[in-house]
Specification:
The protein is mainly beta. The protein contains six helices and 53 strands. Helix 1 crosses helix 2 and helix 1 (34-45) packs antiparallel against helix 4 (144-168).
């Protein structure tokens, strides 16, 4: 560190001091375990390059033999403090920092600073064998030899100081909350009593378009002359429009007044959506149109014409201009700002090669090329733009599936891949590998989730690299999803012929998310929505209709879920809460609902149904007598119950259906020695695989605060009258 100056890193609202071992957010000191701090420092110094698991273990743990679960645990702690967006998981490779970094050296008593802005992973050139070419300046990544030389000089000091600091103080995180902005997509359809509504049609729609006022939906089938018009509110079919020739591509103007339809033979047809009529005028194209995009002012059409290249046509005069003669543009789209046109190629494209086709970007106004991105495994497909998030999703088709391609850069083979590109600086962000039956991906209205469709439906968080919800029914497949303008309803092309209608469940209908540390919704996935730790399934745990969406179904014989400590708010030592919904399918014998084993000074506890059918909270230590508190009355089979355990200070409270049942004074427990192994949690059985639960568990959640009685009561009321009514069959 030259001349004793402070070495600082700044990103977003955060500021990190290497010398002081402190992280600030807007001037406030943030709590981080020493290991998490070291991880953050290593990722920052990595300059956006991918650091493998082995590299991080060597840097942060100095090569000591450690349980590999320590790394994802510390990554989870780090993400809880700085947010998920800054620490990116590169599947099967490692981790890297995501965001722009400013590196500074500051004199201790001199506020004057000199800054050198360094690009990080989202701004750095992708690590593919090919490249990104653009009209603007390119970024220079930090040399890897410099990263390792600097890290080697500081790692021993940081680790020793960190160990002492952690040994001498308790870690009680004060963590930010997170929640879904637009609610769950499948919950209302998959809950008990919920029905996924359908609209029967004469054909299988290929793509859907909804007017900005939400009053009309147009269902288009490729290679067909028919367009079906529906009312998105009443779900009534209003009629069918007949085109002069079969459709191959469609775009709607931003005011929703016109649909421009590219013919699979020749020409651009127009549909007047105000009067639902097909206009007589056809704009000549000289061949079939595989993709069409319309400018924000509706004055220009950009046509992807596979053999003939990229063409622009004026909607008022019909005058056309060839923008590029490069073959095989197959899809195009204009970003939400209306400024940039994205063109997805096959057959290589500009600067691309077989199985690594190019994505080209144009300025809509000047019609000049801004960039050509190539390198990732890509066979051009449809585009989706993230509302308000400056992200573009590009389908990779069979680039990681077909034996015709080299599969370089594929996360795994076989898979269907999708790529995220950032539109602000036209940089590659990441590749998402999905099952081979996935065919399309569309951003949800919040811009943070993607709905994948094909042989099933899935809601996926691309930056978290995790699945949040799933939906499927035997004998069905699903097309590209379309959302109403206000984002409260989704329409899905359904095979066999028709539309699937899904009403999103508003966050107001869900348990509180303030202070949420872990959430296992049971909506067809085992992942923690907060990205801390996934559950591990044993025996016959399945998914069944639950109170809110799907629930975990335990068979009472051999099924259980288990986790390490961090999936049970392992760092929430002093004040925390556990909440879940349970339904017993039978009442024979004792049934364990949840057992959490000891972490540091926190005693073990178990929540179970006793043989007399009362709910019991048992707490204590293996070496001490158990203390219990139980409900006054028995539970019934076939009824949902809300259970909550609240820990605050030296006390632990049990709530059943929103009412306090009793309180336990916690016994004194000697702390675990530093480095001793700690255990996690078991759901649906004990750690000894006894007292199996025959029933359902839904919305298993852990909070890093003591929930007040009013919030617990509100959670119970979800079992009484469902504040958001379920859809009814029509």
């Amino acid at each position: 560190m030259p001349n004793g100056r402070k070495h600082l890193y700044e990103f977003g609202p955060f500021r990190l001091s290497e010398r002081e071992g402190v992280l600030w957010r807007d001037g406030d000191t943030l709590p981080l375990t020493p290991r998490a701090f070291d991880l953050l420092l290593a990722l920052l110094m990595g300059g956006g390059q991918v650091l493998t698991k082995d590299e991080l273990l060597q840097i942060v743990w100095s090569g000591a033999k450690m349980d590999e679960s320590n790394l994802p645990t510390q990554i989870a702690i780090l993400r809880k403090v700085v947010g998920n967006g800054y620490v990116e998981t590169i599947r099967r490779r490692g981790y890297r920092f995501a965001g722009t970094i400013t590196e500074r050296w500051e004199e201790p008593d001199d506020p004057a600073r000199q800054a050198e802005t360094l690009p990080s992973s989202l701004a750095a050139a992708p690590s593919w064998p090919d490249s990104v070419t653009a009209s603007g300046p390119t970024s220079r990544p930090t040399p890897r030899w410099f990263v390792w030389a600097t890290l080697a000089a500081i790692v021993v000091t940081v680790c020793v100081i960190g160990f002492i600091a952690f040994r001498d103080r308790g870690f009680t995180p004060h963590l930010p909350t997170a929640g879904s902005a637009t609610g769950r997509l499948f919950a209302r359809a998959t809950s008990e009593g919920g029905i996924a509504r359908e609209v029967k049609l004469e054909h299988v729609p290929s793509e859907l378009f909804i007017t900005p006022d939400g009053r009309k939906l147009y269902a288009v089938e490729w290679s067909s002359r028919a367009i079906t018009v529906l009312d998105p509110l009443s779900l009534a079919v209003k009629g069918t429009l007949t085109l002069p020739s079969a459709a191959r591509s469609v775009a709607m103007t931003r005011d929703g007044r016109k649909l421009y339809v590219g013919s699979d033979v020749e020409g651009i047809m127009a549909v007047d959506t105000e009067h639902d009529r097909v206009e007589e005028r056809i704009l000549p194209t000289g061949g079939p149109v595989s993709g069409v995009a319309v400018s924000a002012d509706a004055q220009k059409l950009f046509l992807a014409m596979r053999p003939a290249g990229l063409t622009r046509i004026s909607t008022s005069t019909g005058e056309s201009k060839l923008l590029s003669g490069i073959a095989c543009p197959v899809s195009d789209g204009i970003d939400p700002d209306g400024r940039e046109l994205y063109v997805s190629y096959q057959c290589g494209g500009p600067g691309g090669r077989k199985g690594h086709d190019a994505l080209e970007i144009y300025d809509v106004g000047s019609e000049r090329v801004l960039a050509a991105i190539s390198g990732p495994p890509l066979v051009g497909a449809e585009l989706s733009f993230a509302p308000n998030e400056a992200m573009v999703l590009v389908g990779g088709m069979d680039a990681c599936l077909s034996p015709l391609y080299d599969h370089a850069g594929c996360p795994f083979v076989p898979s269907k891949v999708f790529h995220l590109f950032r539109s602000t600086d036209r940089k590659f962000v990441k590749t998402i590998a999905m099952p081979v039956e996935v065919s399309a991906g569309v951003f949800a209205p919040d811009g943070k989730r993607v709905v994948m469709s094909g042989g099933s439906l899935a809601v996926f968080a691309p930056l978290k690299d995790m699945e949040l919800e799933s939906f499927s029914r035997p004998g069905e497949s699903y097309g590209r999803v379309a959302f109403t303008p206000n984002g409260d309803r989704a329409f899905v092309p359904l095979n066999p012929a028709g539309l699937l209608v899904l009403d999103l469940m508003d966050p107001a209908c869900l348990p509180t998310t303030r202070g949420l540390f872990d959430l296992f919704s049971g909506d067809g996935v085992l992942d923690d929505e907060q990205q801390v730790e996934s559950l591990v399934r044993e025996g016959g745990v399945e998914f069944a209709p639950g109170l809110i969406g799907k629930a975990f179904h335990f068979n009472g014989k051999d099924s259980l879920l288990r986790s390490r400590m961090w999936a049970a708010c392992g760092g929430c030592v002093d004040s925390w809460s556990e909440s879940l919904y349970v339904k017993f399918l039978s009442l024979q014998g004792e049934m364990s609902i949840f057992e959490r084993l000891r972490f540091k000074t926190d005693p073990e506890f178990r929540l179970f149904k006793a043989g007399d059918n009362r709910i019991v909270l048992e707490t204590g230590d293996r070496s001490q007598p158990r203390l219990t508190v139980s409900s006054s009355g028995p539970v019934d089979a076939g009824t949902w119950y809300h259970l909550a355990v609240v820990s605050h200070g030296g006390e632990r409270d049990l709530y059943v259906n929103g009412m306090p049942v009793g309180r336990v004074q916690l016994p004194a427990v000697s702390p675990n020695p530093m480095g001793a192994s700690v255990e996690g949690a078991y759901i649906g059985a004990t750690r000894n695989r006894t007292h199996f639960l025959n029933g359902l568990v839904d919305e298993l959640a852990f909070y890093n605060r003591a929930l007040p009685p009013a919030e617990i009561k509100a959670m119970h009321e979800l079992t009484l009258h469902r504040p958001c009514s379920l859809p009814r069959a029509k």
